[in-house]
Amino acid sequence: MGKAIRQVTEIPGPRSRALLARKDRAVAAAFQILTGIAIDRAEGSRVVDVDGNTYLDLTGGLGVLNAGHRHPRVMERVQRQLERFVHTDFSVVMYESWIELAERLAPRVPGPGPKKAAFFNSGAEAVENVVKIAKAYTGRRAVIAFEGAFHGRTLMAMSLTSKTHPYKAGFGPFAPEVYRVPYAYCYRCPLGKSYPECGVACAGELEKAFVTQVAAEEVACVVVEAVQGEGGFVVPPAEFLQRIQAICRDHGILLVVDEVQTGFGRTGTFFASERFGLEPDLITVAKSIADGWPLSGVIGRAEVMDAPGDGRIGGTYVGNPVACEAALGVLDVFDHEDLLGKARTLGDHLLRRLEGMQERHPLVGDVRGAGPMAAMELVRDRMSKEPAAQETNRLLQEALQRGVLLVKAGVHGNVVRFLNSLAMSVEELDEALDAVDGALAAVEAHQR
User: Fold this and answer.
1) CA–CA distance, 237 with 284 (Å, rounded to integer)
2) Does domain 73-337 have CATH number 1.25.40.10?
3) Is the fold of 14-57+339-447 the same as that of 73-337?
4) Is the pLDDT of residue 408 over 90?
5) pLDDT at residue 132, as a whole number
6) Tens of pLDDT along 167-182?
7) Which of 7, 40, 106, 286 has a CA-to-CA distance to 171 between 20 and 30 Å?
8) For residue 407, what pLDDT band results from cuts at 50, 70 and 90?
9) pLDDT higher for 196 or 3?
């Protein structure tokens, strides 16, 4: 297989720079462009910009393209639907794709008993509605989330989100009755201990919160990411999540697992809940559910999902028929192309390569991952673990110049996360990682 990366102009090229200038004149300043390039077309794991440069995409549209750009099974369903109709509002005139998608997704959520689904547009919408569903079912008013969490930028979702800049500063007051406890961020454990010697003491902070912050009988749900996404691809011990689940069960609190980024094979199982031995009452889904079409959902125990009653959740565009067909196409890919098997193979290979970089590059303080949901955390000193935020920004730009699209994460802005397509070939992944390795060396040379 030939090389995928192809550079024909400087990066960004003249046409991209011209579009960037137009963007600056016409588009709100909040929408800054990380790469400075403009896309012309994409397929699989490859992106071609308007200047003809070809890149390998390790961003996946921020976790949206687990099946890859323009997967044929998805595109075929979308094109057929576009020829029939594009909107009715499901609550006025229903359509089969919504129903079929619920039928095919619900059994994939771990846990006993019948399950139901509701569909929305964005991950934040799913989070807003999952809290409403939990409150309707329990009759309770409080919600508990975790330090380092990211759940979106609308009011309740932003209240649950833990990073102040750029997401929360200046946008208060936030939704009331939201409380926060520590997450199992083992690399930066405030106790200075290591797992399992620590006994996942951080899980006990949830029960402590019932004494010092909010009574357990007032808590409707605990909302947790099985692996923190924007927080830095923080992978907790399975025991931590299982203890959180047990505490919720003891107090009649619903366990909500936010699978917006971890779902659809990102951790090597269809949902991360399965990987960590969880049986959530409710999950939220979005991002890779529809391979780039806007769609999200809440899936969970039938009696919980039915609690709000007619008209209390929904929206004009929710569960759009074109997006539902795209999502069915994604499920076709999983069912017929062993995408989970490919994900596990890629995840193992990715972690080995990142661990090799950690051995060679002092800048890499930690490598972690759950299947192909992997990351490396950059530090200026491995003993102090001082976050290397500026170096992380430089690494992303060095990688871009070598033809690789990367994004960062983490509350300190010093984590490089990998969100490549699960259908990416090993050869393409190696080509991209060779470029990342070279970019690391360039950043370290600049430090000296």
Assistant:
1) 21
2) no
3) no
4) yes
5) 98
6) 999 999 999 999 999 9
7) 286
8) very high
9) 3
Residue 258 has φ and ψ, to the nearest 5°, of -80, 105
CA distance 285 to 154: 16
Distance CA 323, CA 69 (A): 15
pLDDT value at 1 more than 70: no
Taking the C-alpha atoms of residue 147 and residue 223, their distance in angstroms, rounded to an integer, is 11
Nearest alpha carbon to residue 411 among 161, 189, 227:
161
The domain segmentation of the chain, as residue ranges, is 14-57+339-447, 73-337
In the prediction, which pLDDT does 447 show? 76
The token pair that represents 367 in the structure block: 């490598």
Q: Which residues contact 5 (CB under 8 A, 6 or more apart)?
A: 54, 55, 56, 402, 403, 404, 431, 432, 435
Taking a C-beta distance cutoff of 8 angstroms, is the pair 217, 140 a contact? yes
Instruction: Report the relative pairing of strands 142-146 and 219-225 from DSSP bridges.
Output: parallel
Encoded tokens for 361? 């590059």
Residue 20 vs residues 11, 53, 384, 403: alpha-carbon distances, Å: 13, 16, 39, 19
- Residue 199: predicted pLDDT: 86
Please tell me whether the overall predicted TM-score, pTM, comes out greater than 0.90 for this model: yes
Using a pLDDT cut of 90, give the percent of the chain over it.
Answer: 96
- Tell me how far CA of residue 184 lies from CA of 147, 200, 234, 274, 388, in angstroms: 9, 7, 8, 18, 21
Architecture per CATH, 14-57+339-447: Alpha-Beta Complex (3.90)
Digit-coded pLDDT (tens) for 89-114: 999 999 999 999 999 999 999 999 99
Angle, helices 389-401/426-447, rounded to nearest 10 degrees:
130
How far apart are the C-alpha atoms of 220 and 207, rounded to whole Å? 15
- Cα–Cα distance for residue pair 322/316, rounded to 1 Å: 14
